[in-house]
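User: Before I run my own analysis I want an independent prediction to cross-check against. Here's the chain; please return only the structure tokens and, at the end, one sentence I can use as a sanity check.
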Amino acid sequence: VKDLLVIGKGVQFKTSGMVKNKVTVQVVLDEGKDLYVVKFYKVRKLVPNLIKEATDVFAEDLVSTIDAVVG
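Assistant: Structure tokens:
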């Protein structure tokens, strides 16, 4: 993980290392449901392009949700 940022009620980071997909990941808490929304972006020329979004993710499923996309 690199470039870790706090964004509102969540975090944003870039994947790094030996992964298939180098993407920007946002993990944001949906306080009403007490669940997370995970968004995956490819950024080209400073323009983010949403490639996948997972909603209603439980805290214990965050790692597996991110791993499924990042590889």
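Sanity check: The first helix runs from residue 62 to 70.
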